[in-house]
Amino acid sequence: MPRFTTSRLVVSAVAAVSALTLAACSTAGKQEHAAPAKLHMGERPNIVFVLTDDLSRNLVRYMPEVQKMEKDGTSLQNYFVTNSLCCPSRATTFTGKLPHNTHIFSNAGDDGGFAAFHSRGEEKQTFATSLQSAGYRTALMGKYLNRYNPRAKLGGRKPFVPPGWSQWAVTGNGYPEYNYWLNVNGRPEWHPHRPQDYLTDQIANRGLGFINDSVRLNKPFMLELATFAPHLPATAAPRDMKKYAKLKAPRSPSFNEADMTDKPAWIKNHRPLTQKWIRQIDQQFRSRVRSVQAVNQMIGRVRALLKARGIAKNTYVVFASDNGLHLGEHRLRQGKLTTFDIDIHVPFVAVGPKIKAGRTENALTANTDLCPTFTAMGGGRPLPDVDGKSLLPLLTRQGTWQKRAAVLIEHHGPDLDKNDPDVPLMGSGNPPSYEAVRTLHDEYGVYSDGEREYYNLRKDPYELDNTYKKLKPAQRQRMAALVRRLEHCKGAACRR
């Protein structure tokens, strides 16, 4: 039976490595303070990582710069997040570890948010600390972790900047895109409601400046551009506010699902969406599409600058999302947190050195893979306790990629924190704790109340029919064994 409480993990110390070798995603506690290696531009590839907030796959069709990346690079068609919630997903992305190993399951409280990540020392073990210790200039612009306060000093003389970052321009509550404090390298800046303060554009402008500075300093760089868009309220840039005036949310077969009697208790009694709710969903979808226009423009500007500075061929650009978002699927109003594909199955596309153009890969991949991927891009090897594995062999078709049987999805719930901008509203979907696995063709979940879900995705790609009760005993045992194998895994056991 899956466990639904976090356990403690003691992180072992790791021996130091040579200055020109990357430590790994899980750098030892003292390594982020080591003198950085003296690398020069061109000796290692640069990395630009665009991480969006709540961007579901159905928004990519409105982002021509992402579609251009798909033509120029490789898309991962089965890329999943291990927890469909902002902070747990980002904690996994930074560390390469599953939620049961980061112990970050929510956006606040004892098992989530910036405070838990910070108190556990997880900040000392990220791709940023690894790359910086190897001689990279590193920068994060935009969003870090939920409940991060850009003005909090945390015992220091200046507002807190986590280890591993050479440049830092981060806010805590940037969802409205205006009226926010920005921590700029330990110095707080207030940005009111003016066109030039629109947050996605601020992130873009500061990112472009960082690239230019890196070229001037002749240093390889890793830049993460972490937008709040298209997280609701999904405020568009002034130039995009009137676009897509008649657009409606997609009406997939799961939209306002007709028969919910097979669903688990937390969702089966949701009533059909009213016309009022559907109109609201359409408006929210329009807002999301409008807000990603600035993200799309940012990607175009970044790639144009890389080309103009002559470094495009030696720079990886990676685009992804921290989780998806449902809007009307399975009778659910706007939200996430579920095992449904609309929440956990998100876009991933990469361009860069030796990455094949115009290709798609169907192997199971996850956000646990991002930290070891960035490490490998910088020339290092992940340590054994990292749960993910580098995607470079898959993206470049150089080397061996060992296929997964399943991706683990973990959740602690229900979420009852009224101060959390992601707390589910009435009808949004607020499941209890669960452990679930997603294979190429199946989805199976076990809830803390004992209920189970199973969807045969070959026959039922929109997850309309929960057929767990129809499974043969051997099939039930196979899916349960996958959960048991992964729910306590660590390092190599997770990668297998």
Can you tell me about this structure?
It contains 13 helices and 16 strands. The longest helix has 34 residues, at 275-308. Helix content is 26%, strand content 16%. It is α/β, with parallel strands linked by helices. The model is unreliable at 3-24 and 26-34 (pLDDT under 50). The protein has helices spanning 64-72, 86-95, 99-102, 113-119, 127-133, 199-217, 265-268, 275-308, 341-344, 370-377, 392-396, 473-487, 492-495, and strands at 46-52, 74-76, 79-80, 137-143, 167-171, 180-184, 187-191, 221-226, 315-321, 348-351, 359-361, 365-366, 407-411, 434-438, 442-447, 452-456.
Question: Mind sketching the topology for me?
Answer:
Blueprint: E1 46-52, H1 64-72, E2 74-76, E3 79-80, H2 86-95, H3 99-102, H4 113-119, H5 127-133, E4 137-143, E5 167-171, E6 180-184, E7 187-191, H6 199-217, E8 221-226, H7 265-268, H8 275-308, E9 315-321, H9 341-344, E10 348-351, E11 359-361, E12 365-366, H10 370-377, H11 392-396, E13 407-411, E14 434-438, E15 442-447, E16 452-456, H12 473-487, H13 492-495
Parallel strand pairs: 1-8, 1-9, 2-11, 3-12, 4-5, 4-8
Antiparallel strand pairs: 2-10, 5-6, 6-7, 9-10, 13-14, 14-15, 15-16
Helix pairs in contact: 6-8
